[in-house]
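input
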Amino acid sequence: MFIIIALGNVGQKYEKTRHNTGWIIVDEIFKNEAWEYNKYFNAEVVEDHHSNLIVKPHTMMNCSGDAVKIALQQYPEATPDNIIVLHDDVDIALGSFKIAYDRGDGNHRGVASITEALGTSAYIRIRIGIGHHGLIPMDKYVLMNMSEDELAILNTIASRIGEALNILVIDGKEKAMNIYNTN
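output
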């Protein structure tokens, strides 16, 4: 069983921001699922057809680790190796993604929160590109709304990320990384 954590911020004003890329992607991949708010998790949750738990924390980005701690308490059979985190990444071009394992947080505060909560960086991350042009300060850039064209690009790559999730869950991180990190 895997726990898939999509990072984002709760609230309408954040809905289409670059920092909500994780939520945007899982909303597209699991659009036919019945998401439910779980008060205990303080997150929207759904189980996929593999009985994996997909979680959209409502803790706000910088406290995402709180939701991961609760998920691991609820599912003690899961280990950090069974955690997959989807998040935005300014170091990757829009329309691309990379799968990472046991890497630094890249100054992403949501990822740093999860690493702190787990006590390790040895978990899987799907780093979804949002690009950055350097003209806008980073903290403002990630909280800006994306254009309709940018959102369309994310929706286009969601199916490939869904395929990558299936391979991660069924065949493991090495195979998924070999397939999707070669682009």
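quick obs: The chain has one domain: 3-180.
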